[in-house]
Amino acid sequence: MRMSIGERCFQVFNYSFLIIAAATMIAPLLQLLAVSFSSPVAADAKKVFLLPVDFTVDTWVHILQNDVLWRSFFVTVFITVVGTFLSMLFSVLTAFPLSRKDFLLRKPIMFAIVITMIFNAPMIPFFLTVREVGLMDSVWALIIPGLISTFNMVIIRTFFMGIPSDLDDAAKIDGCNEFGLLFRIYLPLSKPVLATIGLFYAVGLWNTFKTAVLFVRNPDLWPLQMRLRSFFVSEEQLSTVDLLVGDYDFNTTTLKAATIIFATIPIVIVYPYLQKYFVKGAVLGSLKE
Amino acid sequence: MKNYANNPTIDSGVKRNIPIKSKRKKNRYIENIQKHWMLYLMILPGLIYYIIFKYIPLLGSVIAFQDYQILNGIMNSPWVGLENFYHLLNYQDFHEVLRNTALIALYQLIFQFPAPIIFALLFNEIRLMIAKKTIQSLFYLPHFLSWVIVGGIVFELLSTEGVINAFREILGYEPILFMQEKEYFRTIVVFSGIWKEVGWGTIIYLAAITAINPSLYEAAVIDGANRWKQTIHITLPLLFPTILILFLLNIGNFLELGFDQIFNLLTPMTYSVGDIIETYVYRAGILQGQYSLTTAIGLFQSVIGFALLWIFNRLARKTGQGLW
Amino acid sequence: MKKSYLLLILLIMSMLVIAVACDDNKTDGNNDSNSESNQTEGNEEESDEPVVVKVFKSHLGKGTIPESDDPHVQKVMEATGIEYQLITTPPGSDPAEYINLIMAEQDLPDILRPIGGVEQTLISQGGALALDELLPKYAPHVWEQIPEEAWKIVRTASDDGKIYYVPKVFMIPERSPLLRKDWLDNIGMDMPETTEEYKEMLVAFRDEDPNGNGVQDELPTSGREFGRWMDHLFAMFGVAMWEGYPEWDIYNGDINYAGTTENMKASIEFIRELYQEGLLDNETFLNKGDVWAAKIDNGLVGSWYHLPANLNDNLIIMREHSPDVEISGMSLPKADGFDGYITQKSMGEPEWMIPKTAEENAINALKLLDFYYDPANSEFIQYGIEDVQHEVVNGEKQLIPATDETPIALGMLNFTTQETMDLRIENSFEDEDQQMIKDIFKTATKDSRRIAGDGMPISVYEGYPDIQSHKLFQEYMTNIVIGEWELERFDEFVERWKEAGGDEITKRAQEWYAQTE
Fold it and tell me: Is C15 inside any structural domain?
């Protein structure tokens, strides 16, 4: 395709602008990576800049040999996989009726749901409710209380509403009922938005931390984000003079950097993989308008 | 509601008014349930979820009208009426805090909200697939850094040793300690917010863009439209429903700016421009057992957010795109 | 097809039900074990089952929670007949919030170390157990070792004048003004004795390249964001200051907030001068903790304020580039017209309390606590068990550093004196550094005194978060120091502070102080 001069200028500008911006966005992670491979002394003295100083793999050996860390890793993988599946299912099942004009309670229910997005429950009553349901100290406490994100559900609903209604009639002629319509027509057409929302849920579940602090007491069930924080020893710990063991080892800068990398990489890798779903679809505006 | 009245399925032969109305309605709902029972079945799990995990805990908001004593529970805590709200309104710096919150929220709405749309369109202009995917993936990285880390980066970038001041030095200017200058604070908040979240925000728009039927563009090309015109006349209009919904989803939480960001960028020197409701709540929470006050402040924010959403939803309904 | 989707839904629903049901069972199981242990705690019969005391403590440091077969737990049980069960906050949680949660679910431990003001919640809502009669009986060592004065302060923390907690006691100052003695030698100056001399010294630090790297990169003195950890500059003017938070001491004949005094104004004026002349690190109020530490570690800072017992980490890095580093405590330079001192808080801060819900087990909890305060056990408390917590090298006991995987040995003694601090120094510093650190403590001890507000309960601040958090103070102090605002606005601050509730708080503080006398 030929490009006008204006378009060419724009392309040059666009590429350089985006590449420079992208470089600033990967820099912090490269910096953390460099710190994680540096000696604690160099890291604390802030001598590390994008390249490791006094290269060492000690920190990584320490992390990768840590059994409890791996256990937490698998807890997180479990809640991410199972939780994303359940969240998607519940969200889709909730979003679909709310997108149907022939669902009479559509507006009142939608209104009631949006209310919960604005009015947040105070922490203590929320905590006590989840506890009463009997979810304390189980992996389900990390999945079920946040099962449906209203934000995500509404996005799915909006997408469903954009699907041309002509398809409904076609489906009805084929003898599809409403479940069939959802699972056989709507969902296959919604791959981009499902991939997007799936990603949103997966990232949220991967980063599970606050609910874990509230609901999980058993260290065997700690998700990754919580386990990582157990490595960060804070200065305030000096307050009591007990057994003097270990109070003085604050060289956690490198450990911190390595754990952040360790916790971020797996979920970051998901996105490029999902991008392939972003080229299919081709629904919006196809028959409508 | 008006629609219901005009519904043609209702038998209009019945005469007496009041009981009939309820009967009519009843019939309508029963009919709807009978006809679309699958939809009701589908939404049931979601409804149960919302009742148990959203509405029941939400009842706990009554502690805003109590002097909530955590050891005694809601049932045994004394009621204080609106005292917690008076406390908030009588707070010495209430106006300053509210003004800062509203201003920063407004800046975020004006600059931060459209940023992902613009970037999604820019990404869309990259023809080279591999470059497009790589750049997108890199843009999405800062979302995974916590504000503690990003705050630290911002402080270091803007320090006397930082990049910006190094640049100023080359040009022969004196260094500026940006983080302690009031006039830069809100700019820094907006910029750092865009930097951290723009890539993440584009994902949803990119998904919407890829769902656009390519035949529309093909037709436009035949009509001689260049890329710019295609963007203005095809991409943007088709993105509009998504933009509108995201706007509505955001406006309800207008006064909630994100505590972590502000807290990690704020210094005592910039309190007068950067102290917001959430940082006040944090300070108020320092004194233990202030759950009633913090809940009251939360309700205050929610009521304002709800009012805004109500207004904008009404406006949006005129385009047929409201949330409800 | 229709059926398959229905099945799917049913499957999901049943999964949920099962999940919930499973957890019900689980919690039931827990309850059972709880009631079992409660029975044994009740000592219905003389059985072999150990008495279990649940101890809650946050900020434990590295390590895992010990199981009941842990040697340290076993050893304590042999001695006391009590098995301690350590409970702590989940990593990354806010400890005070966590205690609030367990209060909300009525699941408090048998004895807990309050934090973030939780003690006031417990006391004011009737959730704390009065210990006046129990302590002398079941924890005589605690009762006798902690000075009478401290108990007196503890009594003032509640309306009914009872003892609701065991206080922390710290008989020596923990913090000290620190100085690069090697810099002082390099520029050929003596220890400054007045604020003028101190300033001259800082000027020399700035101009005469004391770190000898040929670059004028020295930051003569520095502090941290919010004006934290620069107490030495305030202390010279007799301001009661605790890590950057103004404290309460006697001013104008009664106890008053140090933040609004003439002393404060004078110190801010002085600090403002230092800032203008580049003697105080101009990025002081932007220094996050790690940045500030790196500046000190990299040999850029000459005079600062910190915990001498923590210097080891700094020394390791400092020696990388300047092997001859020597750190010394600095006696407070005399400011004209003011009596300087280092703020010391020694007693009255809550350390252990017993919730009312654990009344039945209170005797056992106190017995456990008493074990730690019994001087006869001090060897064990200090060093733990051989080859677990310490090893013997050349006939001397040396602590084995903790790792993430080693079980934590519970400590309950928080009673620091000159002797215990010396021991700590000997345990954590290289032989050649020990004298240096001890000297720093000696200098600091000479200059420090307990403030009148030591042990004042935080309940005096109730209803005034901006004063409790020192927000107003920090805003004015920093803006004046950096030259953004004129010094005169300090008076405006005093007025606003009073209006914002300062007067009411002062009244409460003075009432409290009258009780302690």
Answer: no
